[in-house]
Amino acid sequence: MANEPLLTLDLPGIRKLKSGKVREVFDLGEHLLFVASDRISAFDCVMPNGIPRKGEVLTQISHFWFDQTASLVPNHRVGGTHSPLPAELQPFAQALAKRFMIVKKAQPLAIECIVRGYLSGSGWKEYKAKQTVCGVVLPASLKESSELPQPLFTPSTKAEQGHDENISFEQAAKIVGVDLATQARDLSLKIYTHAREHARRRGIIIADTKFEFGVYQGKLILIDEVLTPDSSRFWPADQYQPGKGQPSFDKQFVRDYLESLDWDKTPPAPALPPEVVAKTQAKYLDAYERLTGKAL
Q: Which member of 16, 92, 94, 228 has the lowest number of beta carbons within 10 Å of its beta carbon?
């Protein structure tokens, strides 16, 4: 590989709040510093080796979409991708390059905001069993990967441990309140519709995606990462064929490799072989280049 993956990061003198599956979060006082590592997770396990430049791709795609959707919804960014680093972060400029975002301290909603435009994943499993997705009854004639009659807002819980659970809009409203749930639903559908039209022109189908919202100064804003290969299902439009699973730009390639192993999906996870790492990196970079029209 061209360079080594960034798996962990400490910034002496800057307080780290947490390390997530992918992201390192630091406290800058009034704001937070998000740094996307090159870690990759599958089946709720972090792989021991990462995908070089993956964190750059996730960060720069998020910056791209925040720019694209700024007129639709306010977001948590403080500055854009070319904004200078604050003085206290200048010593770490090389480590942070292309993979950092300085953000407002919002209070995240206690639900995941998922929009599905196509029938795949857990939605397809539920449809096969009940002809529904998250309780919404759908036509009987749909196949795996079919485009849905209209995009569906299908929220889920946020599980501290284990898997998130799909819930109805009514259940989401009980968790966060009717007003916030309604705003989150309407904004999720609006952003998804805007983004999928752009992506389709660039040769990518956004089959589904997960948004995060937070409350900042009494208003709902878009937070976290946005429409990346980690938070979305991206399919190449020129290979789209309903009736089966689709090739993708996301980490499905890694999942498919892991499914071929005799591994029980509990830690420790197996290391990814060099060819899987290389192909996965190529998929992430290809997604960025297609969406933005630029090389990273």
A: 94
What domains are there in the chain, each with its CATH number?
A: 15-105 (3.30.200.20), 108-250 (3.30.470.20)
Query: Which secondary-structure segment (H or E) carries 206?
Result: strand 204-216
**Backbone dihedral region of 181: left (phi > 0), alpha (psi from -120 to 50 degrees) or beta?**
alpha
For residues 56, 62, 67, 68, the Cα torsion angle rounded to the nearest 10 degrees is 120
Band (pLDDT 50/70/90 cuts) for residue 236 is very high
Buried-state track 17-55, b at ≥16 Cβ within 10 A, e below 16: eebeebbbebebeebbbbbbbbbbebeebbbebbbbbbb
Token pair, residue 265, equals 């999906």
- Tell me what percent of the residues of the chain surpass a pLDDT of 90: 88
Compute how many other C-beta atoms are within 10 angstroms of the C-beta atom of residue 279: 14
pLDDT recorded at residue 1: 42
Neighbours of 173 (CB within 10 A): 19
